[in-house]
Backbone:
């Protein structure tokens, strides 16, 4: 009996695309047939300049510049999109589903905005839509939320969702570098792109928060629902103060379900060293979840890179192949079946770290304390360093839990207080402080 | 249209069983129908004493003492085995598959010995056989190996696979307790059973190594193939020496694929604090994998406990329900399709930690060095403490990599050397030492 052959088409042949191609071709030779019960081949790849890739692909792979070559080809079972960006990726994936093909995508920009439309269309067409690689690269989290951990009601999902910023913050913390120096080193070593905005301003992590929140809480949040702040305001000094209270500073992506809505945010946060996320260093990513049955779990790995991302994409392809062989594409339906209101971050309670420059004379503490007190902000800890320069001293305050809105009003008043030279930085504190 | 109802039968209603029942009943009320497109109910439970559980179950759940009540009932779609032990669990699960039911099991004792027979039978019957809870409780690892990470050729899988021993070792390390004290505390707090043998002697972790090795390397290893050592010989002193070189002592389960075979072991090992497994504390479990595409990934969570284990069992049940609804039970075939020879641990290269009591006089180092040298063991580091008692001193040696067989011969000779009072302890070192 001739073995069935499953045909895959790819859209894009950049870094991730060539990794996907390499992994599929490598597996094909030994294990893929065992794993899916069929031969699998990349039959077509949509690229702009076929001549550029001709030497990289095998004879059975046709390079094409024409999307119609793929979408109208009935022998293509699976379309793998690794081009990125919203358009034309959205059109291609929509057309592929409508043409009866299952789809696999690594495209967080697209899925963070139009993911639930694609989920709904896949359900309607009874096809698979898989996107493990769109969140934290090689770290398995999309399918574990849909499958292994499906028995849980989650209360929170929090993670280190961007490798570039984690590399920068780890270097600042370990080597005492300032932000600019650490960014320059990340660029030099290839961990930051020429234009690092999407990473250092938290946009990349924000997209992942939207996608993961939908999986954990079954809702239809989009990137715009996520409150996003980057790491550019973090200084070596903040790192030192954090260290002095047994904490680190990390850029966290956080989705919290409260009784009155979902709070979605990306921001730098102070975190106890004893938290499992605190020891995630360098360019690694991790995501930590809290559920009513599982208690706590964490998933750790490479959030980017050619082969790690390809690992996630090809894992999805293998699973779609199994569904094709078993005749059950679309077996996991739309996962975004609820509509949970978004609650603004300002309505959340947090602890805060505040670093001030204050006049170095008596009566200052009274004025500072008064500003906080009038807005119901109570102080848990105050760290005063020696005189910094000409009559001004550094003063760091850790607050108790307080609604962010109230805290912001205290900070506004503080900025105008006559004994306060400047509010140098404010950083949220995640979770409890070390004892 | 009436919604389809999927009927589950459970074997056993102990701690895990009652957790499974609780989680299914809790989910049923809101989310289960959304997730699987059907109603799901626990229709029957096999127990020894029905009267004991009557008050714990809903009216739709029938308690029975007769296995035939379940296996002959054609309306039962899924059998969930949470009784443990080899027999009668093996017979029940085999009969359930033959009767056309999919099975879910949390039974590591059984699966570490007869797992591949059940995999083969499930394949033959085209039914699902799921066992996420058998390895590391709530930590998702069985399905991620079969699905998310299926694109990888793995070289190693290493983990902290037993919560009781990790709790004991963490306490020894953090509080400076001896083994006996730490075990007593674990027993008092309910982290160790009245008879702790299976945990502290490494048997429990050894079963998980066999199961996970089969998933990572597609082979048919069984518990007897795993070299097993426990933690009873670890002392507070070893912990201190490990700490002095920036390491910790952990009970590791390790499956390594070498060119000439698979090495499977459970033993206490010295591990750099910078390794992600080093910060897995208390009763938590974690498993760390190395693959050719994913690079490194780690999965962390609760390895035991009523609700965490139930989380894994019910995650499997939900996925089987989806397969039933999509008509694709058995969609992931037998995963143990290769036969890789087992390579004895003695043929592996490791670094070693050796703690000796030696005579405190000149010429000793020459004799000790000679024993090692004659067997090709080269010394990387030597730590000598002051005189311990009456002419004897403590002497700790860290070796370079050497085949264990050769190292053992050196230790044999050392034990007889006239200036060596006693070989106090030998511990393998996992991975590289901190710089």
Residues:
């Amino acid at each position: 009996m001739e073995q069935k052959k499953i045909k895959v088409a790819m859209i894009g042949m950049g870094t991730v695309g060539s990794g996907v191609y390499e992994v599929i071709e490598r597996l094909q030779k030994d294990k893929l047939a065992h794993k899916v019960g069929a031969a699998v081949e990349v039959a077509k790849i949509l690229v702009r300049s076929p001549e550029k890739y001709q030497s990289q692909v095998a004879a059975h792979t046709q390079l094409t510049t024409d999307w119609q070559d793929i979408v109208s080809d009935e022998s293509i079972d699976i379309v793998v999109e690794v081009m990125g960006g919203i358009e034309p990726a959205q059109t291609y994936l929509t057309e592929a589903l409508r043409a009866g093909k299952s789809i696999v995508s690594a495209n967080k920009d697209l899925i963070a905005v139009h993911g639930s439309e694609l989920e709904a269309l896949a359900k309607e067409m009874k096809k698979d839509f898989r996107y493990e690689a769109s969140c934290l690269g090689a770290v398995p989290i999309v399918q574990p939320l849909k499958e292994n951990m499906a028995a849980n009601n989650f209360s929170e999902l929090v993670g280190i969702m961007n490798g570039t910023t984690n590399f920068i913050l780890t270097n600042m913390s370990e080597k005492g570098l300032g932000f600019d120096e650490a960014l320059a080193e990340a660029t030099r070593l290839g961990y930051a792109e020429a234009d690092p905005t999407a990473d250092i301003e938290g946009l990349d992590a924000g997209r992942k928060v939207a996608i993961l929140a939908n999986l954990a809480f079954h809702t239809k949040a989009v990137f715009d629902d996520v409150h996003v702040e980057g790491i550019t305001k973090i200084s070596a000094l903040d790192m030192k103060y954090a260290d002095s209270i047994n904490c680190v500073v990390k850029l966290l992506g956080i989705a919290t379900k409260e009784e009155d809505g979902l709070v979605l945010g990306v921001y730098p946060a102070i975190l106890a060293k004893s938290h499992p996320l605190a020891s995630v260093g360098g360019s690694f990513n991790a995501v930590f979840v809290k559920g009513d049955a599982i208690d706590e779990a964490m998933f750790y790995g490479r959030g980017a890179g050619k082969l790690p991302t390809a690992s996630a994409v090809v894992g999805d392809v293998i699973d779609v192949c199994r569904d094709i062989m078993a005749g059950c594409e679309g077996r996991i339906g739309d996962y975004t079946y609820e509509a949970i209101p978004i609650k603004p971050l300002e309505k959340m309670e947090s602890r805060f770290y505040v670093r001030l420059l204050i006049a170095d004379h008596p009566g200052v503490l009274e004025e500072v304390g008064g500003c906080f007190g009038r807005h119901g902000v109570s102080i848990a800890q105050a760290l005063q360093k020696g005189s910094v320069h000409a009559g001004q001293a550094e003063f760091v305050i850790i607050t108790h839990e307080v609604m962010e809105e109230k805290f912001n009003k205290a900070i506004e008043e503080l900025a105008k207080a006559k004994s306060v030279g400047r509010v140098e930085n404010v950083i949220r504190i995640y979770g409890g402080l070390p004892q």
Notes: The first strand of chain A starts at residue 5 and ends at 11. The radius of gyration of chain A is 25 Å. Chain A has a mean pLDDT of 94.
